[in-house]
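call fold target=Phosphoinositide phospholipase C
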Amino acid sequence: MPSFFRKKLRRITTMPLLTPSGKQFSLHKLVAMSTMVTPGHGVHLQPLNNTTAGDPPRQAYLSHEIQEYLRKLFDELSGSESCLGRERFEQWLADVQGHTVKLNKDKYKVEEFLESLFYSHSLEVLKRIPELDQSKPITNYYISSSHNTYLEGNQLLSRSSTEAYKTALTQNCRCIEIDVHNGELPDKDDKSIFSNKADHKRQPSGTGSTLSSRAAAAILTVEEKMESAKEKLESAKQKITKSSSGDKLKVLDEDENGGRPASIRSSMLGEPLVLHGWTLTAPVGFRAVCKTIREYAFTTSPLPIIVSLEVHADHEQQEVMVDIMKEEWEGLLLDSPFETCNPEERVPRLDELLNKILVKVKKAPELKEAPEASNETTNGPLTNGLSPASTDTLEKKASSNTLVPVISRKDADSGQSGSEDDRGSSKKKAKICDSLSKLGIYTHSEHFVSFDVRAATKPSHIFSVGEKVINELHEQKREQMFNHNRNFFMRAFPAGSRFDSSNLDPSVCWRKGIQMVALNWQTLDEGMMLNEGMFAGSQGWILKPPGYRSEDVKSDIWSNIPYKTLDLKISIFAGQQIPYPEGETEKGFHPYVKCELHVESQEELNGQPIGNDVKAKEGEHKLKTAYKSGSKPDFEGETLHFEGIRNVVEELSFVRFKIEDANYSKDELAAWACIRLDRLQQGYRLIPLKDIKGNSTPGLLLVKIEKVLS
């Protein structure tokens, strides 16, 4: 037997196995780079063309338990013969594995059988994603989205960081959020807040500081601010000089990192901050965030990014925001409509927006301004029977209305703007200035009141709604919501009561056609696992299934949705290198496999309540194995059978594998995988496992999948 089946893997830097990279899977790369086996004489396998040059060779390892099951499989196929014939092998690959493979040898020994399985990728669990059709309007796609992207932890006490944007963007998140507040003139000796570093530390500046300024120590004393302002103004005057032509002004200073020069306005007025307002979260500079977005926006994908702005800043700081975005995103920012795409008539196709950053922001008020209550707040009942408490204005309201804005200016228009953070609902809301409003070209925010208002038919509008509103719309206006989302954007966000940064169930929202389900990426829970299952191997945009697109509008809106009935058998054979929960040992580790099927329940399909936290009640079907011992458990082929599951849309249904450690008190999660049902391949498969932080591990689970849809 080749040595790779006997030699234990040394600890190496891991790579994501579950997530494909480009058109090929990462497991393909692993195999191509490995020194697992040398093909035997006469075996002609198709070479892989995506091996990264310079990557070091890696050794693959299969545990004794997994090897034994694959050997038993070989014995069953070969019968009493010592070799497996080509015809029998090809027939098994087609019937059981679902692969059509032309083999080049007449007979295969057991080592060659295993070798061929690996080199033909016949054990990979994920079906390859077809090339994305980019010809549809952008509202026809699901978009991997982040909520309060800047936060590293919970919603009350954690730090704001540029690193959080890097993490999201490099994992193909394509809709990110920035909460922007008034900044102060930066201290000439302390620019840490406005740098890319998130670990700045400053002392509190006096007794009158607000909550966030106390947490971040980001505000200077009155005397310091006055002195700093004078120095900044004087410095700005000295740095403005006539250009060689004599008719233009030129700013001579560039930023300390060698980037684009700051605008005159931002030099004089200071720059906005990014933080979670009315909390103890620490800020980071808006420019630093924009720099990070530019650096990592298109490193893994050319597909567009939507930047959702929650604007809590006054008009002066909004103008600075515009300057910064145009400076830092030069060449990437979509700052004017395409000549052939009038936003009053249509939104662009996906392929028209490659390598572009779109801004989602509210529109500036019209000259003849409507009453405040009807445009920005909801003090009375919503139309169409929705209760006042269900509006997104109240969705994230905190327990206290006495907190003041984090950093205020005496000439501020008001305390805040935006539907997601309206804790101080009694305060007048900030209006959006004209220059910032003009950046919301094909993605402008509209406050949701009803599907019957004129704003609900504008091609470029986006309704952002919270969990409670989604639930009420599901119960009362289900068809209207679904039909709206075939043609126009909707974005869902977690309830404000989720101070721990937990997540809603995104699959419930996707089934309602909601394109953007904003999740707290810093928290690995069910919501983020489902998001991984949805977008694994994609570039952050997934075409909606038939029945959910703008082209599918019919009188009976449910008629062309491909509902099916599912019969799913999962036989669990063995695992290897399963990571322990923190503090656990090999001897004390007692893993079992829990399989959860996430599909639409009959109650949800009929418009019955789904719960205030958008958590499907009966949409989950759960089964689990008996527990075993150690990190190389033998589950003895135990079969978990999900039978006669109705209302299944493959592209919006998920199988979640969780390996948990059986304990006397509470079972702990050790490893997991989440796979979209349409990508779950039949036959004998190796499932790569992630740890409790979402990192790839060497862990594998050998299973057999039998999937029938009718």
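return ok
Residues 573 and 635 are 5 Å apart (CA to CA). The domain at 138-187+286-367+384-401+411-551 is CATH 3.20.20.190 (TIM Barrel).
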